[in-house]
From TrEMBL:
Belongs to the glycosyl hydrolase 28 family. The keyword Secreted applies. This is Polygalacturonase. Gene3D superfamilies: Single-stranded right-handed beta-helix, Pectin lyase-like.
Amino acid sequence: MANLNPKHNTIVLLVIYFLFTFETTIASYDDDKTLNVIDFGAKPGSEIDSSEAFLAAWESACSTTTPSTIYVPQGRFLIGKVVFKGSYEYCKSNGITIKIDGALVAPSNYDDIGNDGNWLLFDDVNGVSIIGGVLDGQGNGLWECKRSGKRNCPMGATNLGFTNSKNIVINGVTSVNSQMYHIVIDRSTNVKVQAVRVSAAGNSPNTDGIHVQLSSFVTILASNIATGDDCISIGPGTTNLWIENIACGPGHGISVGSLGKEFEEAGVENVTVKTVTFTGTENGVRIKSWGRPSNGFARDILFQHATMVNVQNPIVIDQSYCPDEKGCPDQVSGVKIRNVMYEDIHGTSASEVAVRLNCSPRNPCNEITFQDVNLTYENNKQAQASCIHAQGITSGFVQPNGCF
Ligand SMILES: *[C@@H]1O[C@H](CO)[C@@H](O)[C@H](O)[C@H]1NC(C)=O
Ligand SMILES: *[C@@H]1O[C@H](CO)[C@@H](O)[C@H](O)[C@H]1NC(C)=O
């Protein structure tokens, strides 16, 4: 390539230039239309509320079956509680992309959205993608209220919620300082969460990174979650969930549960949690159920390739959850746990008991497998395992051992 003559170079450049212009010309006549929120009245700068402008852009995107992109340019846009409604009544489109270069900022007064449950909620939508951007819940004030033990603090709002929705993509989104949960996937199917960053203080209450419930075929990939509660929590009715390539910490780890709070409860089935690094977290991989009657269950769960770095409780099943010791008559969980595999789980525990399976005396855990588990306590000291009402097998090198 070094001796290409200048004439050739010019021709090559011209051809590239021509192709490029041709491409962009095509793109702008593409049937995908772009709606800039600025054109609907949104104003960056944190004083002017842009909620109405965002809703107007959504309505415009929804007015046609033609796919469209709602574009949010650089800048910080103050947004109040907003519900983006789908279903054919409100939205004809099954292809709306929200491309965000800037940040959406919640009101700094936590009372404004603190009792609404959700800040940005997508309800009954189909084919929505959110690409990029920052969602800033400004939760610090509310966390402080909760931590100070005041009684009249609102519950708080989830930064980003999807309910009753399908065919959703959340890609490259950064969620910071949510008042409560960061991202909630509820009653939805076929949801792909990728390259998401969650960031909230390690002592922020109930700020779970991603919570999934009553949903099927949710995939969470290549994400980095640092928060004050579970990095990912997996609630009742979650099936066919795939989690891979996650960095978790600080936080409470990845948790199936809490399950079995209700007597009639949908179970959790077919969950894969693969290639996760837990750093300084309270738990690593956990299954947790209330110590009370329930017909719930958790089965066919694989925890594979996990690295624990100074984790308080790397492997936990706790079936006697009962905060404040209230409403758990006999402390016995009805939730049935079966076929849980721990494969290639290694690293360091910050406490001596690295493996703790505390299963229900009425419904012992069944078909638990430990394969290639190597957890040490502090500087290569021997860690312990403590198991009750658990039945299973080990294979390969398993340390600490002694459960089965
Ligand atoms: C389990 O879920 C995955 C998606 O996470 C899916 O590909 C697989 O087919 C499911 N397995 C069964 C047995 O349903
Ligand atoms: C288990 O982990 C310790 C600490 O990292 C390491 O020294 C040891 O070689 C590992 N054992 C096996 C069998 O992998």
